[in-house]
Amino acid sequence: METSKLVQKSKSEHYPKMRHSIKAEDDLIDLFPQPRYFQVHFQHVHENAHDLRGELAQLKDYVTKVDEKLERVMALLSRTPEQVL
Known about the structure:
This protein is mostly helical. It has a domain at 52-79. It is built from three helices and no strands.
């Protein structure tokens, strides 16, 4: 089945060819992302790491509380019926 020229044209507009030929007069630095890209990227990583540390601290606290409750339940279950009365 052939695709129409209109579909082919719209695909080429949305997905331009990304190949970049390197010429001798091109500066190598121009071929790499600009510093702003890395600044935004590392800021995002830093913010996510900060949020994850906070969430990890909350989870550790929750696990500690659950562990304490579990120890109390195990202590109650390990008592003999005479000790309960």
